[in-house]
């Protein structure tokens, strides 16, 4: 029987929930922090403000490109947005699909963000995504101060 893995990361940012929600849903906000440190995003259709397809191509310093795509499944501003996630192989075929939810709540210390990445295929994928999301969150923290 297949065992799927889940990842949960949480951070508090010193901004309003509305501001944080814009960072995690709008094309302008996402383009500024999407992808781990050292990666650029030369191509993307990152728009989590509406249901529908999305994709991004991340490129590392050596020119390696990594495409990921999915479909925005729900939009509930300024509280949450959810989307499917699947990496593409070198031939452009989508791999195993998982699901990500960004949940934003107001706290007395600022806006609280929870990233739930559910249904990853194995522990190695969960570890890789934990590292990737953690690095991306560092970039987001630099913006949200």
UniProtKB/TrEMBL annotation:
InterPro entries: ASHA1/2-like_C (IPR013538), START-like_dom_sf (IPR023393)
Signal peptide stretch: none
Pfam family, one: AHSA1
Domain (Activator of Hsp90 ATPase homologue 1/2-like C-terminal): residue spans on this chain: 15-143
Family: Belongs to the AHA1 family.
Protein name, per record: Uncharacterized conserved protein YndB, AHSA1/START domain
Species in which this protein is naturally found: Tropicimonas sediminicola
Lineage of producing organism: Bacteria, Pseudomonadati, Pseudomonadota, Alphaproteobacteria, Rhodobacterales
């Amino acid at each position: 029987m297949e065992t799927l893995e889940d990842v949960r990361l949480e951070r508090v940012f010193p901004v309003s929930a509305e501001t944080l929600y814009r960072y995690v849903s709008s094309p302008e906000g996402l383009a500024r922090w999407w992808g781990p440190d050292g990666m650029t995003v030369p191509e993307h259709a990152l728009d989590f403000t509406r249901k529908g397809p999305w994709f991004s191509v991340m490129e590392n310093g050596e020119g390696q490109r990594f495409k990921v795509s999915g479909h925005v499944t729900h939009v509930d501003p300024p509280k949450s947005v959810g989307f499917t996630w699947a990496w593409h192989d070198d031939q452009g075929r989508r791999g195993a699909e998982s699901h990500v939810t960004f949940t934003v709540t107001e706290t007395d210390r600022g806006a609280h963000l929870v990233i739930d990445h559910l249904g990853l295929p194995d522990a190695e994928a969960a570890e890789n995504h934990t590292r990737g999301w953690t690095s991306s969150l560092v970039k987001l923290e630099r913006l949200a101060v």
